[in-house]
Amino acid sequence: MIARDLQQVIENQLFKGKVIILYGPRRVGKTTFCKQLVSTVPGSRYLNCELLENKLVIETTDSQLLKTYLGDLNLIVLDEAHQIHDIGRILKIIADEIPQVQIIATGSSSFDIGNRLAEPLTGRAREYLMLPFSIHELLNTADKISIAGNLEGMLRFGLYPEVYGKPETEAIEEINQIAGTYLYRDILQFERLRRPELLVNLLTALALQIGQEVSLNEVSRLIKEHVPTVQRYLELLEKSYIIFRLRSFSRNSRKEIAHGQKIYFYDLGIRNALIRNFNPLKLRDDVGRLWENFCVVERLKFNLNNRRLVNTYFWRTYNQKEIDYIEESGGQLTAFEFKYSPAKTAVPPKEFSENYGGSRFKTVHRENFYELLED
Predict the structure, then answer these.
(1) Among the CATH numbers 1.10.10.10, 1.20.58.220, 2.40.240.10, 3.20.10.10, which is that of 177-373?
(2) Nearest partner of 302 among 3, 20, 30, 6, judged by Cα
(3) Nearest Cα to 104, choosing from 56, 161, 40, 149?
(4) Confidence of residue 184 (pLDDT cuts 50, 70, 90)
(5) Which end of the chain is more exposed for a tag (fewer CB within 10 A), N or C?
(6) Do residues 59 and 163 touch, judged by C-beta distance below 8 A?
């Protein structure tokens, strides 16, 4: 069992009068995490809200009925809580009327829980995001040498708990199942989209452009769909934790791209499944882009799990000078350049150094990638 970084964070928030909301894609380990937590806290109960018998019990705004059912418990997990109608109001009632009961509610997408919780639970909730395994979490059970030895597998098959460490054939079968069975489930169920093939076409187009600046006009031409529709589907894919965006960084220099965006995948196994390419790295022409995606998402996980509040960007000029990734925190800029090969060196572009003197600069390659886990 690989301990999750969120475990200590969430345990420290228990029984402090707040509902705990745990988001994340399907199959990243939310249920396993919650069942393990329930086993360690006396007077706890786990409820799968996809089961009708649990929905019938919880789906009420009658505070007395809820007290009768929950009053003797110390902690209750409502897994897939978005399946409960009016879940926001119900959680508010529990928080207000049965404050001694700690509620943990999980959901596989932000849009199908978040939109129903925002107003009812204002000031009453703590929200956390669980993603596939991070490098930092793997260090809980493995040393740096063995993790580095699995680096190619991470770039090919990703870090979903049921994929990581499996033999190649099993890993491919598992990640294909996740990509084919679970990837669009929430979007199709909750948004009632009539064209699921458009999701596949859009994701495939994005998968081929990781590490590159993405133009919505270009994507719309590629998949033969209007820009507003592309934008709407991008938002849904972000809210279901399949992709995320980086915006361009600029402070009004006329040479800097001010409104660009890059799109990355939360898991590279999903990305490779979409383009049906699990080839070894020596046979690929996208290793640099895979490495960039890997580094950006590992840094994102590090920031999330350590509650580091930073602004994140990429930087590029119109004459093609660029920096892969920038963080801004407390007025300090830290720039990262990602090179898979340690033989490739990088220095900050002259234009960046002149405009943003005092910024820190790091090159991250396959032999020093643990620097992603440093402040």
Answers:
(1) 1.10.10.10
(2) 6
(3) 40
(4) confident
(5) C
(6) no
pTM of the predicted structure, to 2 decimals: 0.93
The alpha carbon of 224 is separated from its chain's Cα centroid by a whole number of angstroms, namely 28
- Which pLDDT band, with edges at 50, 70 and 90, does 115 fall under? low
Q: How many CB atoms lie within 10 A of CB 62?
A: 10
Which single residue is written with the structure tokens 């000031």? 123
Contact of 2 with 141, CB cutoff 8 Å: yes
CATH 3.40.50.300 occupies which residues in the chain? 6-129
Q: Quick one: pLDDT at residue 337? A: 96
Helix 110-117 crosses helix 87-97 at what angle (to 10 degrees)? 50
- Is the CB of residue 267 less than 8 Å from the CB of residue 132? yes
Please report, for residues 83, 131, 169, 257, the alpha-carbon distance to residue 320 in angstroms, rounded to integers and kept in the order given: 48, 33, 40, 10
For residue 282 the two structure tokens come to 């020596």
Task: Give the helix/strand (H/E) hosting 331.
Answer: none
Instruction: Please give the CATH topology (third level) of the domain spanning 6-129.
Output: Rossmann fold (3.40.50)
Handedness of CA 36, 42, 47, 53 (dihedral sign): positive
Across 53-75, average pLDDT: 91
First to last CA, the chain: 27
The pair of three-digit structure tokens given for residue 210, joined into one six-digit string:
């990781």
Dihedral angle at the C-alpha atoms of 233, 238, 244, 246, nearest 10 degrees? 70
CATH code 1.10.10.10 region(s) in the chain:
177-373
- What is the average per-residue pLDDT within 111-134? 81
What confidence tens digit (pLDDT) does each residue in 311-334 have? 999 999 998 899 999 999 988 999
Residues contacting residue 8 through CB under 8 Å, at least 6 positions apart: none
> What share of the chain has pLDDT > 90, as a percent?
74
Q: Give me the amino acid identity at 217.
A: N
Burial state string for 200-211 with b = 16 or more CB within 10 A and e = fewer than 16:
bbbbebbbebbb
Q: How many CB atoms lie within 10 A of CB 170?
A: 13
